[in-house]
Amino acid sequence: MISVLFAVLTAISNGSASVLQRRAASTVPDAEAMRFSLIKHLARKKVWLAGIGLVLVAAICQAVALATGPIAVVQPIFVIELPATLLIASCVFRRPLAGSAWLGVAAVTSGLALGMAAAAPGGGSESVPGYAWIPALIITGIFEAVLITWSRRLRGNARAALLGLAAACGYALTAALMKDAMSRLESGGVPALVTAWQLYGTAVAGVGALFLLQNALQAGWLVASQPMLTLGDALISITYGVTLFGESLRAGWWLLPELIGVALIAAGCVELARSPLASGSKPPPPRVR
């Protein structure tokens, strides 16, 4: 229950941060794309700094969630970040969600429930043998390089989608490294944590994923990057959980409801990302009666 609670808190913080960062990144010229000057430009905007603050809150909540539960359970819960954010934004701006947005909320939540119930993730170890990280990091590096190189040849929403997937891979790697690092804290205390390379790998992977996300948000609409970010993070994290931590999922005919759950989540994310509240735009003034 603790891991699920903190996973939900992480999702709410991350979703809110994505909306604030998208609002800031959408004002940056295309010439700043894939340059570190993009971050310098964004750092001058209060709305972006607020988003970064929520990212830090999410990182703390995620560390607690991963320390108390399997990665294949914790990370998929993060798909609720977009519906949760829209519901909060709807209350803050006093603007009711459209019927299509409510259908998106229902699709994401029901898809998550169906997928988790069918897959029944669990088991596994709390740490990863050092040698097992070598092929994982090599494959991840190649995958990221292909996505980034491919995105450089594209523009607009196509680039946003590829960079969103690259950011998702970075965040999934961050989660896997974070879980491995937290296991050192439990077994050897603070000295074991601060001497573990996984802790510093978490920081590097997290910063890299954040940089890729800013470029994804700057490149195109949220409807292009958010579904790739949300689903990519969940699916790649499950892959890390199974291959590195030895966690288990149901197979066989259970794959059918699992795939239906993934399809519902994807459709819901696309619908929700079209909402003006998700794009970070201000609500229109109320009509005079």
Summary of the model, kept short:
The protein has 289 residues and is mostly helical. The chain contains twelve helices and no strands. Helix 8 packs antiparallel against helix 9.
Tell me what you see in this structure.
75% of the residues lie in helices and 0% in strands. By secondary structure, it is mostly helical. Helix 7 packs antiparallel against helix 8. The longest helix is centred in the middle third of the chain and has 39 residues, at 156-194. The protein starts with a helix and ends in a 10-residue tail after the last helix. Residues 282-289 have low confidence and may be disordered.
Give the mean pLDDT. 83
For the record, give the distance between the C-alpha atoms at the N and C termini, rounded to a whole number. Answer: 48 Å
Q: Specify the biggest β-sheet.
A: none
Share in β-strands:
under 5%
Helix-strand pattern: HHHHHHHHHHHH
Q: Please count the beta strands (DSSP E, at least 2 residues each).
A: 0
C-alpha Rg (nearest Å): 19 Å
Q: Which consecutive residue ranges, at least 5 long each, have pLDDT under 50?
A: 282-289
Broad shape: globular
Query: Number of helical runs?
Result: 12
Helix residue percentage = over 70%
Q: Find the structural class using helix and strand composition.
A: mainly alpha
